[in-house]
Write a structure and sequence with these properties.
The structure is a homodimer. Chain A is mainly alpha-helical. Helix content of chain A is 60%, strand content 5%. The longest helix of chain A is centred in the middle third of the chain and has 42 residues, at 79-120. The model of chain A is unreliable at 150-156 (pLDDT under 50). The interface between A and B is large, with 53 and 50 residues. The structure holds a DNA duplex.
DNA sequence: TATTGACTTAAAGTTAACTTTAAGTTGTAG
DNA sequence: CTACAACTTAAAGTTAACTTTAAGTCAATA
């Protein structure tokens, strides 16, 4: 029925010290103790822990996660503020995915660049190539690497 | 023709101290200096800087980025090792995108959860709902939060 | 009941990636 | 030629998120 901190940590794939640290920081107000002071993680605690994992993996700092957990503790009056936090995090994740996709394109371009250089035996081959030699779908990434900004005037 | 560290930093949207730090750590072997020791960033340096930005934003640690830059410095003999690093980073980014999408589903579920609770005025409404009340596309995220793992036996 | 492995806390240590500070130098504008 | 803003380095400081250590307690088993 209950898990100790070591068992819970194993189930979650984290170090026991991490869970103790989170608890100390106030992220786990829902975890109860035995009379002797031993933490007892119950089945329902893992839902909170999985949400923490989700927020953490999407880049939310621990102090904001604590803020969310504090809101959970105050009850129904904080529902819309919790909803706001979730919505803002959703927006951030959508942005992160977009940014990763852009960076993936740059990596795709670099993959092509080094594949081509590898075949030729030298990076110098790229001096002999024109824009048309670059695969269509990699051209925008190439331009991004070159720098989209208008080159600023010299002494200005 | 050339940018100082402050101008380059502004163009890249980072602090000048960040560029000096990267230089000190060996990430910018391509940046030349005036006789007086002032860094001169040329147009072509920004391509290297943008790649560093890309690697950093996809989570590569600075020491690995330095490794990549060191490989660039040795010339053509390191082409296939550079290709390997790029390919490994591509794999990592694909994994990151997948993970963000999974976590986004959990946030989507939580969005629905709090929207529903907000309408009802209480989170208690969820006790009255059955699986069928959860929108189809959010059910798997819900199960993820509940914990997929088989509940382990009590005293074991 | 004694042992033992896992638990407890508080405090100090670690790591990455910067940022700040201090003391001094460079180079452009007046 | 002097001011002065922006540059230089080395070293120390910061922050987040843990991890480790030390000293002690709990509770299940022999």
């Amino acid at each position: 029925m209950f898990y100790t901190v070591g068992e819970a940590a194993k189930r979650l794939g984290v170090a026991p010290s991490t869970l103790r640290y989170y608890d100390k920081e106030g992220l786990l107000p829902f975890v109860e103790r035995t009379d002797g002071g031993i933490r007892m993680f119950k089945q329902s605690d893992f839902e909170g822990l999985r949400l923490i994992e989700c927020l953490k993996k999407t880049g939310m700092p621990l102090k904001d996660i604590k803020r969310f957990m504090d809101l959970c503790s105050v009850g129904d009056e904080s529902i819309s503020e919790r909803l706001d936090m979730i919505d803002r995090q959703r927006e951030r994740v959508l942005g992160q995915i977009e940014q990763l996709k852009e960076n993936l394109q740059i990596l795709d371009y670099k993959h092509w660049y080094y594949e081509t250089a590898k075949s030729a035996g030298t990076c110098a081959v790229h001096a002999t190539l024109t824009k048309e030699d670059i695969p269509q779908e990699l051209r925008s990434a190439r331009e991004c690497l070159e720098g989209r900004e208008a080159p600023r005037a010299v002494n200005q």
